[in-house]
Amino acid sequence: MEMLLLGGDRRMLYAAGRLSALGYGVRLGGYEPQPGFLELRFTAQDAWREAVRHSDTVVLPFFTRGKTGKTAIKSDFSGEEIYADEIARIVTPEQPILAGMPPEDVRSMFFGKGLALLDYFARDELAIANAVPTAQGVLALLIEQLEKAVAECTICVTGYGRCARSLARALRGLGTHVVIAARKKRDLAQIRADGYEPLALSELPVAVAKLDALVNTIPTQVITADTLAAFRQDCLLIEIASAPFGIDSDVAKSIGMPYIYAPSLPGKTAPKTAGEIIADTVDSMLRELARSQ
Question: Which one of 21, 28, 41, 219 has the fewest beta carbons within 10 angstroms of its own beta carbon?
Fold first, then answer.
């Protein structure tokens, strides 16, 4: 099978290597040849359209807002913006398109043309595996930004999904006092059973004065202006959730609190691991498609 990985960051370079090792004929489009990856097949930057036409499947990275205001794919190594609508004009319904968290406008565009657009970030195996490098990235930020040893800190994690659980385990391993804030009684019971201090989200304003840092994993605003007013001003806030995000960043910045928006941490702190996770997930999805046909 001929596969084109179009755009992206260093994760896609490692994903290409992994997929090649799995037996796929892989090309990278929207890249200049990269040092350390010269064994990979790169198409000329202006030849990606022809490469799409001659590929059995196309793998796309995350999306972003281009300079013109249109939706484009993330493309760290290309001088040309590659727009979603142009990709949609070239691909055919016979070509499976695998993408990372395509936004609603891209989904509507592709589905409206009868194109097969699949989200590899929606897969459980990727989300579970990705939680570990995400936690590693958060730890790196905490160690770099905090003024005292992580082992001496009280750190709150909001939410108790995959990333939160992985991060909580890593923090406890370093000796941190870990507080987990959640809404559901079931989650609070599980948090206590797992050995962390449980905290109802509704009680967060009365408990935040003791925190050295808070990491949000909930993709809806739970850290409001009223809650932020109760924090110590030196409490480090780290946002790793997706939009619409959990921390009111405008208020946090306006009152001088240290705030870090940290999306796509695996791609920054562990691109090889993250890229190979993407590759294994793509391989699994294509095998499932082949069995269903």
Answer: 21
Give the count of alpha carbons within 13 A of 55, CB side only: 28
pTM of the model: 0.89
The Cα-based distances of 40 to 7, 14, 95, 124, 266 in angstroms read 14, 10, 22, 28, 22
- Tens of pLDDT along 39-54? 999 998 889 999 999 9
Contacts 24+ apart (CB under 8 A), 16-19: 16/40, 16/275, 16/279, 17/275, 18/275, 18/276, 18/279, 18/280, 19/279, 19/282, 19/283
The two three-digit tokens of residue 79, written as one number: 């001088």
Straight-line distance from the first to the last Cα atom of the chain, in angstroms, rounded to the nearest whole number: 15
Name the residue type at position 253: K
| Superfamily holding 2-122+270-292 | NAD(P)-binding Rossmann-like Domain (3.40.50.720)
Average pLDDT over residues 66-73: 93
What does the alpha-carbon distance between residue 56 and residue 142 come to, in Å, rounded to a whole number? 43
> What CATH number labels 127-262?
3.40.50.720
Residue 291 half-sphere exposure, CB side, CA atoms within 13 Å? Answer: 6
Tens of pLDDT along 115-165? 989 999 999 999 999 999 999 999 999 999 999 999 999 999 999 999 999
